[in-house]
Protein: ATP-grasp domain-containing protein
Amino acid sequence: MKIHLFNPENDVSLAYGRCRVTMSPLVRRLHDDGALLPMWYADAGDLVYAPLADKGWVDRMRRLFALDVTPVDSCCGVAGAPWGWSHDACRILRSAGASAIDDGRVERMRMLSHRRTSAEIMLKLSDMLDIKLPPVPREVASVSEVAECMREWGPVYVKAPWSSSGRGVFAVDSMTSSVERRISGILRRQGSVTVEKALNKKRDFAMLFYSENGRVTMCGYSLFFNSLGDAYGGNIMACRSVLEDMIVDAGASRDELHSVAEALVRLLGTLVADCYEGYFGVDMLVTDDGMIAPCIELNLRMTMGVVAMLWQERYLHQASTGIFRVSMAEPEGMPPVVEAGRLKSGVLELTPSTSGGFYFTVEAGPSLSELQ
Structure:
């Protein structure tokens, strides 16, 4: 048995280290509105930390989908399973009576979640793979070094060491005074930035992995899309082979995809498997000319892509495809049709709806072209 905690602020918490995190009102709303999201990926018999759970809504979902998960506001010694590990997540879990991992292990995960790890992975993959790859991103500690990268590469992306959902990541095609101030602010707070050559992107995707007992396995793909401002928007929900076909249709070589997956399983097995257990993802993209950028970002935590994958496997009707969305717009579409514990068509809210907040929804239908 585990007790799950939805703490989507985790990437920001990592930047704070051992300091307490003060969430912005918007992030607090996301945290609260998504508190019951772990019901859909928890195992049978697990608990979900949700002090304000809508019991009536929970009971309806249990009946519809035969869920065997219980929301609670406290427990006694149950192992914690947060969205992501940070010192702040440990504090929340311990205050609820759950057990948490030791601080040393949290600090190891924190440093692995630093964006320099993604650059290190890219460097090692360039030695392991005999395929065309983009330049290895650079960690720099001054505005002048960012400008030097731009002289070599042209337009770039500048990324804070720890950030979430597109925040702390911005495109730079000219070094203006406002860009200099923004970079200087990150350098002052976090010590460095990562600079990455801007690529002509055709499609975003991720490979999803699971780490357990010192071993990493690949378990699927995530085809995600962004909303305004590069924040996460949602995921396409289909079986693994269909998602792989869609990545290949975007121009990627199937053989190269498999080579990247095999190399990452070996590499991540030595890099993270001794300290991290659970699902995680590696964000990637395919360029206009079919090149795979195999490590845009390592997300050493649960991801929305994993939620979409597990929901598709457990609760989406075999004859349907779907779209998983996270949005502040009220969902539109037909009422949900559920057959034998699986969503066949319509729009289903995965958490209780709250006016003016975040909506976590799945829209299902016979084909993607028929979905909104």
Observations:
- The chain has a mean pLDDT of 95.
- The longest helix spans residues 254-271.
